[in-house]
Design goal:
By secondary structure, the protein is an alpha/beta fold. The protein has helices spanning 26-38, 55-70, 83-91, and strands spanning 2-9, 12-21, 42-53, 74-77. The protein has three helices and four strands; from the N terminus they run ββαβαβα.
Length: 120
Amino acid sequence: MIDFKVEQSDDKRILTINGELTIENADALQDILVHSLEYAEHLVLNLENVTDVDLSGLQLLFSAYKTTMELKKDFSLNGNCPEVFKDAARDAGYSLHTGCGSGCNKICLWMADDNDEQKN
């Protein structure tokens, strides 16, 4: 199950995602991400209450992230990413130590914490 809380302030939209970022919820996640990008110059994701993540969830977030860069919009995270997100990104090979090369100097969803290396 997944649900969303949306807060809009001028050109900034905060999207809080609660629940599972999985294939079962991919359509709903895609819809809310597309809608959010249409109505905001700055998309802020809060993933603190995400309870499960699979490859489809990671791919949709990566697509939204890349789309914001292409549209010259801002993308950022609010709060801490849960371990389940960090683990899924690392296990899928998304974790990087040098950034994704998109030119984003604010945040990269895929940057691994120094502590992540110690888990391997």
